[in-house]
Amino acid sequence: MQLPAGITEIPLGENGLRGLKVDTPLCSALLSFQGAHLLQFQTTDKVPLLWLSEDAIFKAGKSARGGIPLCFPWFGTPADKDKPAHGFARHRLWTLTAARRDGDIVTLELELTDDADTRKLWPHAFRARQTLVLGRNITLTLTVENRDKTPFTFTFAQHSYFPTSDILRTRVEGLEGRPYFDATQDWKILESEADGIRFSAETDRVYEGAGGHYHIVDEAAGHTIVIRSDDCKSAIVWNPWTEKSARMGDMGTDGWRGMLCVESGNTGSDAITLAAGEQRAFTLRLGNG
Ligand code: TA6
To answer: Can you give the pTM of this predicted structure?
Structure first.
């Protein structure tokens, strides 16, 4: 495919993965074909909008730690231990179907369809498309098509990693008073703080039926990240903290202190069912405040 000016195909790491580098007057970005995974994004006048671990691993079948990996066709860890956590989409090579530049706005479209391997894990015919519009901010749309003869149900999350100067001086707004499942307390249902979420230990919260509009306030830097989605009803807020980070091995030195995830998708009771032949799009917008 002929790539527009400012978009180049490059190798990622030493294990054969490849991706796209985007450089325009508005932004620079890096995307991996594996998982249609946006790894990095930065507008020319601001700090990076996404966090990527200094120890991120680029190899087949391993989701690089950071950016926006896509959890699909399920979010979370299945009971069946032969199935990967967060689905298989982030481990598969997606096909670049379009690369456009309109002025300084870049649009990339990638798709993943079912094959014998995916059907062993999830017995459905589907097409998933990730459309990324990269300019002064990120617009990311997942479109899922049911190519089967019967309905199917899926869950997903755009598992966005964001940077912060110091997690101890970071607040998440937009989920005040909402109930959440606390994965660190055996999925107990608790109520979110009335004055925003702050972090003082491993945090792993799943909100269903959430509002879709959140702010990450980096108090130390006086910087806000804006997250907006009317199509993604679930939110997941995660920081692995010290012990889990040490076990993960790809979080870098004290990486937990400079990052957090505020993920957008449809999980649990927000799961999506598509009739045969139906397709639906789920758009997420991310930007600097
Ligand atoms: O979204 C939070 C979470 O489900 C955590 O429990 C943690 O497992 C995180 O995702 C990262 O999962 P991964 O499979 O990418 O290491």
So the answer is: 0.98
